[in-house]
Design goal:
single chain, 352 residues, FAD/NAD(P)-binding domain, 2 domains, 4-stranded mixed beta sheet, 27 strands, Fd--NADP_Rdtase_type_2
């Protein structure tokens, strides 16, 4: 059985940053993730997608953000159980928890932090009769490596941030980019909408609104799509393409965690914003997996939640100790192996 101070379910950005904050408090962490690598969606779905709202980084690729977080937590030597899904939880008589994965690996900790992001997820697919015939043959539901689309004719469909952001990014990669959305209004950030409109005016993006993809054709591989102008059904457009990427979002599911007697609201875990604890004392939920009044599903909000969660976890693990945390400009980081790294740290002084 693997023993640790804080067992983190989910190795995405929020879970990884929780390791850092816990390490500053000299708490050991172990992470479980169903994916075969750390990083969550940032590694699995869009490692090359630029992120613009991480403080101190005007722009950072999702994969690079994960690499930086992994480097940041290295002194604290977290453990990882990857490629396994957290399946069950049981509270022991001593107040600690045992979490068992689908492969039977058991983990024991006094604190469990659920940082599962959107949980397990499936892409929302358009209702096209022969769609499955072209999956991995010109149809993809996520972009891992944009270089695949270098000098190709690409059609994207969707009206959210992903569709807008990837249209902007691929405008400098693909030979031709067409964005199709069934409404004239987009759901994404206003800045992205304005950028897409600017690229359209410059002739770098073809924008079809309102419209939708109604047909796919090709012998063994996608060769063309049919776009219906929904304002005038007579104006069907038959467009030769190499790749079609419908970006209609993900359909999230909590998976086995939904059966842990947690208080659930709209497929998210309700928490107390004092410390992001769930209705089960000792079990916390941080990042996109939780919900509370005013919740924003942003990575930077997950970082904040992880920080407060670790403070509460310390108090739970050491109820008879008080500590004083100073600013992170004092001293260096002390690794669990005794090594010393000269870098900012929070100094914790425990007082019995």
């Amino acid at each position: 059985m693997i023993k640790t101070d804080i067992l983190i379910i989910g190795a995405g950005p929020t879970g990884l940053f929780a390791v850092f904050e816990a390490g500053l408090l000299q708490l050991k962490c172990h992470l479980i993730d169903a994916l075969p690598q750390a990083g969550g969606q940032c590694s699995e779905i869009y490692p090359k997608k630029p992120i613009y709202d991480i403080p101190g980084f005007p722009e950072v690729l999702a994969g690079d953000l994960v690499d930086n977080l992994m480097e940041q937590i290295k002194p604290f030597q977290p453990g990882f159980t990857l490629g396994e899904r957290a399946e069950t939880i049981k509270k022991l008589g001593d107040g600690t928890f045992v979490v068992t994965t689908n492969k039977g690996t058991e983990h024991n900790a006094p604190v469990v932090a659920i940082a599962g992001g959107l949980g397990s997820f499936e892409p929302r697919k358009p209702l096209l009769q022969n769609l499955a015939d072209y999956e991995d043959k010109g149809v993809a539901y996520m972009i891992k490596d944009p270089e695949i689309y270098r000098d190709k004719k690409v059609v994207l469909a969707g009206g959210g941030d992903s569709a807008l952001d990837w249209s902007i990014f691929l405008a400098d990669v693909a030979s031709e980019v067409t964005l199709v959305h069934r409404r004239n209004e987009f759901r994404g950030a206003l800045d992205s909408v304005e950028k897409v409109q600017q690229l359209k005016n410059e002739g770098k993006i073809n924008l079809v609104t309102p419209g939708e993809i109604v047909g796919l054709k090709g012998e063994g591989k996608l060769e063309s799509v049919t776009i219906r102008k929904t304002s005038n059904a007579a104006e069907d457009i038959h467009l030769k393409v190499d790749e079609f990427i419908p970006l209609f979002g993900l359909s999230p599911k909590l998976g086995p965690i939904a059966d842990w007697d947690l208080e659930i609201e709209k497929n998210a875990i309700k928490v107390d914003t004092f410390d992001y604890q769930t209705n089960i004392p000792g079990v916390y939920a941080i990042g996109d997996v939780n919900t509370y009044p005013g919740k924003l599903k942003l990575i930077l909000c997950g970082f904040h939640e992880a920080t407060l969660m670790c403070q509460s976890a310390y108090q739970r693990i050491f109820p008879d100790k008080k500590y004083v945390m100073k600013y992170t400009t004092v001293g260096g980081i002390s690794g669990f192996d005794g090594s010393k790294k000269e870098a900012p740290k929070a100094v914790v002084k425990a007082i019995d």
